[in-house]
Amino acid sequence: MVGENFGLQQLDNLPSGISLPLRHALDKCRESPPTDWPAAAYFLLGREDLAFSCLAHNGELETWNNANLLSMSTPYMLHLHPVTIPSTVSDPIGPDSATFEDADSIDGSMTDGMEHIFTATTQLRYGRDLRLNEVRRLLCSARPVAIQTSVNPNASDQDLQQAQLWQLAQRTTALPFGRGAFTLATIFTLLTEAFTVPKLVLAGRLPAQQNATVNLDPNIRNILELKSWPEFHNAVAAGLRLAPLQGKMSRTWIIYNKPKEPNAIHAGLLLALGLHGYLRVLLITDIYKYLDQQHESTTVGLMLGLAASYRGSMHPAMSKVFYLHIPARLPSTFPELELPTLLQSAALLSLGLLYEGSSHLEIMQMLSGEIGRGSAGDNVHEREAYAVSSGFSLGLVALGRGLEMLGSLDSLLDRLFYYIGGKEAHNMMDVAAVNVHVTAPGAIVALALMYLKTESETISSRLSIPHTSYDLQHVRPDFMMLRVIARNLIMWSRVYPSKEWVQSQIPEIVKNGVKSLGDDNEDLEETDIDTAVKAYVNVVTGACISIGLRFAGTRDGQAEELLYEHAVYFLNEIKTVCSTSGSTFPKGISHYIDRGTLEICLHLTVLSLSVVMAGSGHLRTLRLLRFLRGRHSADGPPNYGTQMTISLAIGFLFLGGGMRTFSTSNSAIAALLIALYPRLPTGPNDNRCHLQAFRHLYVLAAEARWIQTVDVDTGLPVFAPLEVTVKETEHYSETSYCEVTPCILPERATLKSIRVCGPRYWPQVINLVPEESPWWSPGSRHGPFNSGILYIKRKVGACSYIDDPIGCQSLLSRAMHKVFGLKNSRAYNANRGDGYVSLDQLVSTFSSDPSLIAFSQLCCDPSWNSRSDDDFHEFCLQVLFECMSKDRPALLQVYISLYTAIGSIGDFIIGEAPVSAETLSVSSLKLALTYSEALLSGSLATPKGSIVQSVFVGSLRKRLEDLFLCSTSLRDDLAAYLKSGRWPSTERRAVILSLYLQWFGVPTPSVIGKVAERIKPVRKISRSSVALLRLLLPTTHVTAIKEIDELLCSF
User: Fold this and answer.
1) How far apart are alpha carbons 404 and 850 in whole angstroms?
2) Four-point Cα dihedral 817, 823, 824, 828, nearest 10
3) Burial of 987 (0-12, 13-18, 19+ CB in 10 A)
4) Is the pLDDT of residue 130 over 90?
5) Do the Cβ atoms of 668 and 701 come closer than 8 Å?
6) What is the pLDDT of residue 218?
7) Does the bond joining 340 to the residue before it have cis omega, within 30 degrees of 0?
8) pLDDT tens for residues 377-431?
9) Which Gene3D superfamilies does the record match to this protein (predicted)?
10) 277: left (phi over 0), alpha (psi -120 to 50) or beta
């Protein structure tokens, strides 16, 4: 049919007897058609969901127009059928629903950078509660914060206000980290608009004094210095919102937003655009113009952005840019440059991103030397940041390829273990004495990334945790945390979310020391207990971070439960907030360890929990984060580093507005490790151990694995149940579970199939081949989803899950019976009351099919209801109910055609109606009834059962036979025809006779004569020869055979 360009319009023009078998064939294919059919075939079946998915997959959705649709659709559907799906999935909802209600707000016109987060998709996912509103309140930095003071302040109160304001400023300056994650790629920008950044307000207000504003005293604090890097992060957060249409960014737009004087805002924009991969549009001249400004934050943002955009490409021009900022690697003839250590550290990591996965041996040798060399910058306190950046860069260059380069890495490995503090260092004559406290972190993370997921027992064993009291005294506890993380990244498949696994990470000497807490054990000195407790909390935290990385973005229930229990344990050790009866954790460790360490362990564990639950909006985790954020000064002054982790954790939990999550590919884990490096800053400008700009690299690990189902008939996002099947892994067998859209799917490496299930929507199965590849990019022609959109079609007779969440309504509900049970629609209109709902409204509630809606509107039309044919009104209502209950809207035309044909024949035979085309369609009527009866009897090679209601088929046959009996002249005309072949003299009687002959299959008079000759001998024995006539005239109906037998007897 598709090959002959034969569509529904042509099908409607066929007689019902011919169209019925074709419609039945289409109905049989509708449930599960082959996946390789063209879109036009799916339109024929009434599976517009599969058609639009096919068009989207082939990249033809935008070019599909009315001309294409006309060839396969019926004309009366075109004005109701949406030809293209509108962009309502990502459009913001109305302003009333997006209003930011908060007791701390001063005016409603505030722009906080999150006002666009309320879309049709987020409303579906979080519309039942105020989670998004709460997250928006928690991450808002564009309004003054409330300060609780007395109504009548004095001088001491003013000092207290300044102290509180300074503490709250630490939290405010950390909020952009989380806001960037929360709003990641959630707004489609117009390249004709200027880039806007929400304000970063460090002021406070006094609710007790009519919201009077209080500013930080510039004589006490250097506000400009305090806001320099926070402004940078604030701009990064604003830039991360951008998701240019079709993934394209204009160089002109970037240059247009470039300020005359360099500032931190444009620097942050450059980093954000680079993380999205949009800085490739810049020319090399543009890059050097930026560098010529010699602005620190601009250079950092530009280099990291370029490295992210050219990630893994080894672009020669970019490598020259980065080498230019590493003085130790410049030629001796090159003029001496005094570059801040900050820029050198950023250049080193940028170089690693540029050469990611290349295993470039020369680069690796250079980077391993830089770990121990230290920077030549102006700040010796930032040497650790330089060494850590070198380590990350080295790990990125050889990411996961350590075993492949085993022969060429011997000397490099010895050097790295020497930096860690290994007792044996072979061939280390060319290496000067190093400060292990500076070099160890960089060397550990380098080894972790080089041997990521390699399961190398050799490297893992050399990174073991100290097992003797002497070693515990000489290894820093935070280095133990790094070693645990590194070991587990290497032994990737052995990480398991259970308490037993966490306990297996703790050395026996540490376990014994922790068990003795509170006991009067004279064998253990207090220093030994202190050392054991410090080692314990750091090892446990390292194990929690390992679980967070191993199960990043998976929403694993066991991992979530385990991390939550450890977070509550650390919190209770700081200050008891809830009972933990039955807990097996050691009690009283807070007596042997400082509170700052416990705070860091607590917040790193919570951050790991958010990494596991990334994009899920998990409510229990959000409550915990909100509690940690809102702790008062009585619980200790808020530290900038811990506030930053809370901000990031909230952002991760709602990553991309809940539409993104993290991947666990090698590249993604490396980016996450850099962003989550467990060394927290002490202030907004602290870059001594780890550059704060690196915290934004989580963007490189984020994937848009969300899926939204769209009703193909309305173009609106809807709820729908999905059955998701994941392949067998090391820890789990092949598993299927149910999700409700919009939701986040598993990684491509584990995702096996997706099936639209449930009774309300037509089934649809998407089979996938699990492979270690990144998630399909938006708009990819090879992706099974159209930028995260799956088109589905609602079955007729079912309500959407928005209108009927728990399934208490159905087509057979009381309201529908009230309509269809009445004699006709006019009776329903006469009985309308306060709860009146029109027929077309009820039909549109249970179906989005345009033909059913159009037919119901016709039934409600006043001019149509003014007709006097009540029987036809009742028939139309019953047919409408039948087509809706059986989900066969295409049969409306068949039912109406058959009904009007039999009515026209009746008017002609009984009354004086003129001859019409429908009067002469008795052969088509016969074919339709014969096909239906064959289906009922099971004589065809299809499952037994009729497509047209059997009672209706029987009533049509009985009605037509009764009509022939009503004709007084038919018997005489039939006798004359059979005896002499003479037709009646009038046209009307001739037409009636022809109808009779067609309907009953009466042969010509010559055939009847031959049959009469053959049965003459039998007539002498028996007067009835019906049985013989039945054998000799097999195509003639038994009613006509009886009539022929009687006439032959009378001849």
Assistant:
1) 61
2) -60
3) exposed
4) no
5) yes
6) 76
7) no
8) 555 567 889 999 999 999 999 999 988 877 778 889 999 999 998 755 444 445 5
9) Leucine-rich Repeat Variant
10) left
The owner of tokens 């020391």 is 513
Concatenating the DSSP letter of every residue in 518-566 gives: TS--TTS-HHHHHHHHHHHHHHHHHHHHHHHHHTTTS--HHHHHHHHHH
Site of tokens 């022939």: 964
Backbone angles phi, psi at 617, to 5 degrees: 65, 30
Pair of tokens at residue 185: 């790629």
Q: Which of 612, 613, 609, 679 shows the shortest CA–CA distance to 644?
A: 679
Local structure of residue 358 (DSSP, 8 states): -
CA angle 339, 340, 344 (to 5 degrees): 80
Q: Among residues 313, 301, 342, which one has the least CA distance to residue 325?
A: 342
Distance CA 721, CA 736 (A): 13
DSSP-derived secondary structure letter, 625: H
Mean pLDDT of the chain: 82
**What is the residue type of 944?**
K
Residues 6+ apart with CB under 8 A from 519: none
The H-or-E segment that residue 756 falls in is strand 751-756
The span from the CA of 619 to the CA of 606, in Å, is: 14
Give the pLDDT score at 1012.
81
Pairing of β 764-767 and β 751-756 = antiparallel
Given CA atoms 1007, 1013, 1016, 1018 in this order, what sign does their dihedral have?
negative
- pLDDT > 90 in the chain, percent: 34
Does residue 960 contact residue 999 with C-beta atoms inside 8 Å? yes
| Token pair 């972790």 in the structure block, residue | 448
pLDDT in tens, 236-290: 999 999 886 555 678 888 998 899 999 999 999 999 999 999 999 999 999 999 9
- Burial track 763-792 (b if 16+ CB lie within 10 A, e otherwise): ebebeeebeeeebbebeeeebbbbbbbbbb
Phi-psi bin for 247: left (phi > 0), alpha (psi -120 to 50), beta?
Answer: left
pLDDT at 724 over 90: yes
Q: Enter the pTM of the model.
A: 0.84
Rg over alpha carbons for the chain, rounded to the nearest Å, is: 39
- How many CA atoms are closer than 13 Å to the CA of 539, on its beta-carbon side? 25
| CA-based end-to-end distance of the chain | 52
